[in-house]
Amino acid sequence: MSRIHELPKVELHVHIEGTLEPDLVLELAADAGITLPYPDAEALRGRYVFADLQSFLDIYYENLDVLRRRHDFARLAYEYAVRALAGGVVHAEVFFDPQAHRSRGVPMADVVGGLVDGFARARTEFGFTADLIACFLRDRPAAEAAETLDELVAVDAPIIGVGLDSAEVGNPASPFADVFARAADLGLRRVAHAGEEAGPESIRGAIDHLGVDRIDHGIRSVDDPDLLAELVATRMPLTVCPLSNVCLQAVSDLASHPLPDLLSAGAHVTLNSDDPAYFGGYLDDNFTAVAEQFGLDDETLARLARNSVVASFLPASRQREIIDRIDGWQAASTESRW
Ligand SMILES: Nc1ncnc2[nH]cnc12
Ligand SMILES: [Zn+2]
């Protein structure tokens, strides 16, 4: 258990904007001559006490204002890769919110180009790989999502998929059916946040209306045994984010998190960090927290890591290579017990 950071991991649910650390907010603001309403990074971090998803999103969108130039996005991507690798992440499928930058007048080519630059540098320097998934904001009109997809196509954005995020309650998936169908026609994969704050009906909506390949969060599936059984039968991956759920009060504390129920039901659970700069931990921290809370052994941790590989959109040959490394980690942990 002590070698969690060495367990090879794939991350499937991380918002690149949610990796914007307070120090980097301050640095980018100083660079761009932006005056911030707090004196230092500690004061900013002090504001990270959230009652729910919306109270987090308010600060998350406010902080984005420091991301303005192509090299800001490159820096953000690179810094995430450095930190993720230190925790054992070898590949990530990374969300970004194009509308949150487009609405501030940042050219789409700079957003995408910067992220590509930052991840290319990480790949060259230390072999970390990343793919991009563009998320549509579900609290904005579906027509805006459609325009955003057109713009992504126009700049030839190298995205592998589309997602749906932002405020879930009161913003169902159904209006986004057409834009997700267009994404499917373009050969893109589809994922959606569902069952984070809203109930099982939100998960049902993402499956029925958007044809998703994975459900982001999905923890509220435990409230509907029929739905959970269906998720298990169809091997629908759930990208679960335990520390996020605690911080946003989707669960009252880690001990009450439904992870053990999902695991014992046989759900295809993966572990993820969501917005690690805000929720007190990167992917290794999420692994460590649930391992300690629920007494998960190395075999279970390796199973969770393998689940992410299988649920990823990586080609089979790369999946095999990472799974071999996970098997090696597990074998070494068994040997060290003798
Ligand atoms: N946890 C989350 N849920 C919904 N939208 C988000 N955008 C960034 N983080 C999010
Ligand atoms: Zn998320």
UniProtKB/TrEMBL annotation:
Q: Reaction(s) catalyzed by this protein? A: adenine + H2O + H(+) = hypoxanthine + NH4(+)
UniProt keywords, alphabetically: Hydrolase, Metal-binding, Nucleotide metabolism, Zinc
Q: Which CDD domains match?
A: ADA
Q: Does the keyword Hydrolase apply?
A: yes
Uppermost EC category:
hydrolase
Task: Provide the cofactor list for this protein.
Answer: Zn(2+)
Q: Identify the residues that bind Zn(2+).
A: 13, 15, 193, 274
Q: Which residues form the active site?
A: 196 (proton donor)
The source's domain of life comes to: Bacteria
Tell me its EC number(s), please.
3.5.4.2
Q: Does the keyword NADP apply?
A: no
Bilayer-crossing regions? none
Binding-site list for substrate: 275
Pfam families cross-referenced by the UniProt entry: A_deaminase
Query: Can you tell me which family this protein belongs to?
Result: Belongs to the metallo-dependent hydrolases superfamily. Adenosine and AMP deaminases family. Adenine deaminase type 2 subfamily.
PANTHER family linked = ADENINE DEAMINASE (PTHR43114)
Q: What NCBIfam families does the record point to?
A: aden_deam, PRK09358.1-6
This chain belongs to the protein called Adenine deaminase
Source organism of the structure: Gordonia sesuvii
Q: What is the lineage of its organism?
A: Bacteria, Bacillati, Actinomycetota, Actinomycetes, Mycobacteriales
